[in-house]
Amino acid sequence: MLPDKRIDYIRKYYNSIAPERLKWKKRGSYYHESLTKFYRFSIPENKRVLEIGCGTGDLLASVHPSYGVGIDISEDMLKLAKRKYKRLRFIVGDAQHLPIQETFDYVIASDLIGNLTDIQKAFEELRKVSNDRTRIIITYYNYLWEPIVGFAEKFGFKMPKPPQNWLGKIDVYNILHLANLDVVKTGNVLLLPINIPIVSDLVNRFMAKLPVVSYFCLVQYTIARITPNVYSGQEYSVSVIIPARNEKGNIEDAVNRIPKLGTSTEIIFVEGHSRDGTYKEVQHVAQKYRNKKTIRYFKSSLEGKGYAVRLGFAKATGDILIILDADLTVPPEELPKFYHAVRLRKGELIIGTRLVYPMEREAMRFLNILGNKFFSVAFTFLLGQPIKDTLCGTKALFKKDYQGIASSRLYFGDFDPYGDYDLIFGASKKNYKITEIPIRYKARTYGSSNIDRFRHGLLLLKMTIVAALKLKFI
After folding, report:
1. Same-domain pairing of 107 and 128
2. What residues does the Glycosyltransferase 2-like domain cover (predicted)?
3. Residue-level pLDDT at 419
């Protein structure tokens, strides 16, 4: 069928079935409720949301947007939507020629791509309605379910649809790449799409999320963003946050070795509960270099690196925030890599990975390496993004993106004394892209580690379980 004829066929088909849409939604209520739950988890309330292929507008309304727009090719479906949701805006239009130019925080494309005549063109059109921070959420049937879905339609268990495009994750990834869109994360949901009391919820919450098993879920999802402009010449101001406890011997070395970054660089020390005179050394060094570098310093009343990082972020004036551990095991000379990765929007959260290059002797003990590898596998599974090193202290992000993470901190609770998981979990919940930069990890030259590997290892395991319950098994 020629593209124009297929578009017309799709329009007429959905117009013809619009009077029966409510009946079919009731028949497949468990499927639609499960999909709604996924989108409500992925999209915070009171955001600007566009849904393409919105049908009768139920999914769009369920995420409670501050401003919601629905676009659909079926005039009759939209008549029903306008009667039900008067506060939302509905526009007749084709996904391959979007009749709108404004941008949104989130774009929904649910059960849409199976109907499109030109998926690449439709994905290219998404750039019209996206900005640097827009997240595009695409859900679609797993092609393994094609015979089962066909059977359900034939025997009246599911609303029949026109002949569909059946795509795998790799197909969607490739077409997004061709359309200059960048995949943030992918996943699968809904292994059992019918309601068997208690059983369905247990299967879909736990079993459906397990490795291998998840491959057989009915619904696959991809979350994407527009590919950033890597040729941007824009520069930004930078704040380097250095949590420091018992690090007196590293303070001046840190100040000397931090290079100039962006339009301006401020160094912020946050000291807490030191026993070696670290705070006095910070004051001395700040006075000594007052005419050469911008150095600010604060005392944390609470114990723990996480609280120090949050205080430093709250006091920072830079557009970009970078954490540098005061032990200098990550060389300050590596910081330009982090700055440029954030500046060029290679990800919303940039983290270092120490597990690529060979380490100096005594830089990381064998048990620590094993622990890092365990948490790497666990986090990659939990977050839907590859994470090699969860515990490298050096991280960087725009202050605006940090504020987004901080705004959703109540979801997880105040449970992370280190600040590493707080940022990683928060970034995942916000659907931020997490990008790793390999760094060379050095041995300490002053002091000793503040980490008790066994006690803190158990705490990290506890935090991993929290993440599993809050991010994966929901």
Report:
1. yes
2. 239-399
3. 76
